[in-house]
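Support reply, case 0932

Customer input (verbatim):
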Amino acid sequence: MNLNIILPLLLLISSAFCGDRPNIVFIFSDDHASEAISAYGSHLKDYAKTPHLDRIAQEGMLFKNTFCNNSICSPSRASIMTGQYSHKNGVLNLNGSIIDNSPVFTEELQKSGYQTWLVGKWHIHSKPRGFDKYKVVKGQGKYFNPTFYSNTTDELEKLEGYSSDVYTDRALQWLDKRDKEKPFCLLLHFKAPHHDYQYPPRHNELLKDVKIPEPSNLFEDVHNGDSHLKKAFLNESKFHLSRKGDNNDYYERHTAEMEPHDASNNRDKWRVAYQHMAKTYIRCVTAVDENVGRVLDYLDKHKLAENTIVVYSSDQGYWLGQHGFYDKRLALEESLRMPLLVRYPKLTKAGSVSEDICINIDYAPTFLDLAGVEIPEAMQGKSLKGILAGKTPDDWRKSVYYRYYASPKHSAIRTERYTFIEIAGKYELYDLKNDPQQMNNIADSVEHKALVEKLKKAKSDYEKEIGYSKAAVKNLNHSNRPPKKAKP
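Our regenerated output:
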């Protein structure tokens, strides 16, 4: 054979799999509302200060309209890993298992020569796939002194310290020991700021004597309103800040920690519950931001920033008092919307902002596309590479589909202007242009009758396109699901 031909080919292949391929750092949090990232410019921007997350936005792209397809922890995480809707990957609710034949983006990266690592929260019942090393906590894990299981030892490992700090310590240790001849993909997944928002002692005094601005719809009278969905969620009483006669709302769960107030006045209880939640949550978020800063500093110090894609996101949005709620789950804006910040200097112009409608099933194909790896046909999402380059494809989607399988069961589509929801055979319609706070359900108004019918059809067409049906859900092949325990 002619070595003059073979050697250049070998060098080209080596270059494609190693030096020129971007590294990936995917930092992921739990229940981090975009309102609590100052770069998003919400009413909390001067209180939830996140300078390191803001830096990703300033040096990359901030996505304003990224949504989840199922607003609860395990399903959203599974959709991000597989690029598939819940009814395809099998994770419909908490602690579900990804089915065997679903693709996982880390497996594809690993097969193509990437070093792959995961540290922190996993929260999917099936074990992580496609990682050289993983060190994850069981379920929710603990905020302090977390215990890990891994694929490199049968022994559990307990590490002293605050979880966000400890997770980051281990991530940076792996980067120190990496094979510098190969590209890497690091997933750093925080427990924070999931309820009950525990924070490290260094933030005990943060915002102590400050009044946090209230959302305009904090005191919404959901009980007497026109939303079937909000009323159904109100029955999930522990997710309301303070409701008269309720012994399991946020106020009752945290009363002893709240500032002095008039306990006979329900509105005052509501007010102090919000202040407690907001301050505790922001302290927890601040520790996340500090650790994001540690990662960015590491990349700078080791001259990795230019060729490393840094992504920050969360599994869904979160109610920070809007409609009187906390938690997530519903197909309404604060719950549905995910933060997404991406920095990739070789592709994305610093300070870019995208208004395009994106969804969490887009993450997996995006990682693969940016890494030069073929995207499996089974992935249902679309790569964001064009958007990151400032060139949104002409045929980019104008809406997203949503389905929540627990209580209250409901489905929806969210278009550029409207949110259309179906719950128990009833419909809700919100005009995001004229009613961004989603206070008025206009589905029953005569003037919107034709629009409701149009959106009904659009939702039905969407379900056909993505392969959703009750039969499809029933026939999911969970061959990797552990056997059920026999009833006593």
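We compared this against your earlier run and they match. Two observations from our side: Residues 266-301 form the longest helix (36 residues). The radius of gyration is 23 Å. Please reopen the case if you see a mismatch on your end.
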